[in-house]
Amino acid sequence: MSEGPVSVRKIRTDPDLPPVAVEEPPPNTTPSKITFGVIGVLGALGWVMIAIVRGERVNAMWFVFAAVCSYIIAFRFYSRLIEYKVLKPRDTRATPAEKFENGKDFMPTDRRVLYGHHFAAIAGAGPLVGPVLAAQMGYLPGTIWIIVGVIFAGAVQDYMVMHLSIRRNGRSLGQMARDELGPIGGWAAILGVLSIMLILLAVLCIVVINALAESPWGVFSVAMTIPIALFMGVYLRFLRPGKVSEVSVIGVALLLLAIVAGRWVAEDPTLHQVFTLSKPALAWWIIAYGFLASVLPVWLLLAPRDYLSTFMKVGTIILLALGILAARPTVQMPAITEFASNGKGPAFAGSLFPFLFITIACGALSGFHALISSGTTPKLIEKESQARMMGYGGMLMESFVAIMAMVAAVSIDQNLYFAMNSPTGVNGGTPEKAAAYLNTLGLVTPGGAPLPPADPAMLAQAAKDVGEASIIGRTGGAPTLAVGMSEIMHGVFGGAAWKSFWYHFAIMFEALFILTTVDAGTRVARFMFSDALSNVRGLERFKDPSWTVGAWIATFIVVGGWGSILVMGVNDPLGGINTLYPLFGIANQLLAAIALTVVFSVIMKNGQFKWAWIPGLPLLWDLAVTLTASFQKIFSNVPAIGYWAQRQRYADALAKGEVLAPAKTKGQMEQVVFNSTVQGVLSIVFAGLVVVVVAVALWVAVRAVKAGGLPTTEEPDTPSRIFAPKSFLPTAAEKEVLAEWAAAGKSPTPVGSHAHG
């Protein structure tokens, strides 16, 4: 039943209830057209200044204009195309959150809180690490891939996978693959997804550890976010239900207090010792946290922590963007460096193609996001139409984080950048040795002139300015972004004396990013593992997400898997992040290939052949990149690139009784051989599983074309009995419907926050 003018439809599913859906066309007024025209011109100008007008001084503010304007145009037009022509969401359908609400894993959640959770879950270490490491090849290739990649690949994947999962009762990516591709392709996808997931979570944790090791200020501030989130969860659930804005103000205030108190902890002799933790100790604490966060109810820790951290994340990125516009720093890195072609970069080895595109994963295209989009978010979303804001819009925001990380990396002194992002085994770990190493790299200015020699005093002073003993060899992206942020922000707010505050503010902000990904990722991996076990005869009960014993068993196994890789990484003589990140990038992009393959298969089975290019083109590009990178990592005879070549080099030296740097003992040599073997085997397994999945999908696609379409596993409609706006701010028509619910004395949503509008 519908009411209202033709342009706006208010739809009821029950005559006894107010409308549950509003259909209205997008604004197409003259002011709207003028606004988007101005945005388009400003974005084009930004691209011209970045890509064409080069020289000794490139202003970083043009990165902000190019990125933001491109995102706005893409969200308004390209995501609308996908919504209207391909996915066609219907808010008259009940989502899994409404159908299976249990107050634990399935629960209709206020769109603003859920956006916070979703963004926090996807925006982990990737948009911080990848762009920072890729900056060694120059600012231009990475910037192009981050912006173009997210518009046509990353955001497309996130949005479409989320929609598919909503239509399938919130099933995980692996289970959807098995349902749509059959047992062979499905099991290959399930095994691929689960094994890749363990690598992803382990590397995310290594980034946190590299940022927090031997930093009592950072450890205390991040640790305090856990009791703050627990308080917010209890407050929102029992004390003041629905008061989202109120609890947000309290949470942010407590968060800022935790940062300030971190300085006091760092300066207190006793507390300094308590919160100064080694890398192995931090690894075990994070393993324990990952387990507890995964098994606790989602409303108690996961959702409020993610919501809290989103304020920090979005607020910090906006603040950094404003700081860039105010300070207008100049880019210190050339547009394209020699490391893009010679493959001998200090941060990571390999040429621009394919390694730039696997290094910058999150922020452009990330398979991990498909796990969140088919994991927690579909189980919490109120309406199908909200998936556009969550999936496509959330990914655009993550891409902006990646752009800010890129700007921060290319805006600091080149010598400082390479001192931080080369492993200590190579740069020596001291200002003097690092300076000597940097002077051998042949670095040049953006204009092509030789860079002045590195100064040890500058490297030591840079660490002192941010309140750290040393920042040499602090790889992983987080410290580099923190230094870049402190350099930009101190010139706008606070002066030089505030450099240490801004540095640790950024460190906490980044650690929040990553830990929220770890807890959400572990929960998602638990869902996937439970789904996989439920396909085995006799273990069908694991399919029930409410079964506490099964949830604990699955969580224990998952955490044990990524925890063992984490421990291996933190003890790796070659530097865990430097060794594991290429595998992380390849695995992440191969996971994206599986996700895009599933989406492509469903589009073909639906008979929507003319729209198959939307997931098909990014799938082809992703396969070209990842399979080329996998081939090189497996077969390259260069030890810095090929895992097996690296293994052979250290194994031969070990047989001769030699110890190769950076290893210092026979035990460390054996560790390098073991780690290289594991990574080489995983590279083969990952690539093989993806090839099987794609081959099965092509067979399904051919069958679909011949038959004019095939049945899918989409669940039948269940009429919705709740209402929620599509985006952050309700439209005029949505406000009218909310008023109708209020007048009827009914809540538009049965659980969660009731604060609409």
Characterise this structure.
By secondary structure, this protein is mostly helical. The protein has a domain at 30-214 and 277-415 and 501-531 and 546-707: Amino acid/polyamine transporter I (Up-down Bundle), CATH 1.20.1740. Helices cover 67% and strands 1% of the residues. The chain is built from 28 helices and 3 strands. The chain has helices at residues 30-51, 61-87, 96-99, 111-122, 126-134, 139-166, 173-212, 216-239, 244-267, 269-274, 279-295, 298-327, 339-342, 352-359, 367-373, 386-411, 414-421, 424-427, 431-438, 456-465, 478-489, 499-534, 548-570, 576-605, 613-635, 643-655, 666-707, 732-743, and strands at 2-3, 9-11, 21-23. The protein has a 3-stranded antiparallel β-sheet, covered by helices on one side. A hairpin with a 5-residue loop joins β1 and β2 (9-11). α7 (173-212) packs antiparallel against α27 and α12 (298-327) packs across α22 (499-534). It is globular. Residues 1-6 and 752-757 have low confidence and may be disordered.
Task: Compile the SSE list and pairings.
Elements: E1 2-3, E2 9-11, E3 21-23, H1 30-51, H2 61-87, H3 96-99, H4 111-122, H5 126-134, H6 139-166, H7 173-212, H8 216-239, H9 244-267, H10 269-274, H11 279-295, H12 298-327, H13 339-342, H14 352-359, H15 367-373, H16 386-411, H17 414-421, H18 424-427, H19 431-438, H20 456-465, H21 478-489, H22 499-534, H23 548-570, H24 576-605, H25 613-635, H26 643-655, H27 666-707, H28 732-743
Antiparallel strand pairs: 1-2, 2-3
Helix pairs in contact: 1-2, 2-6, 2-16, 4-12, 4-16, 4-22, 5-16, 6-15, 6-16, 6-24, 6-25, 7-11, 7-22, 7-23, 7-24, 7-27, 8-9, 8-12, 8-22, 11-22, 11-23, 12-16, 12-22, 14-24, 14-25, 15-24, 16-21, 19-20, 21-22, 22-23, 24-25, 24-27, 25-27, 26-27
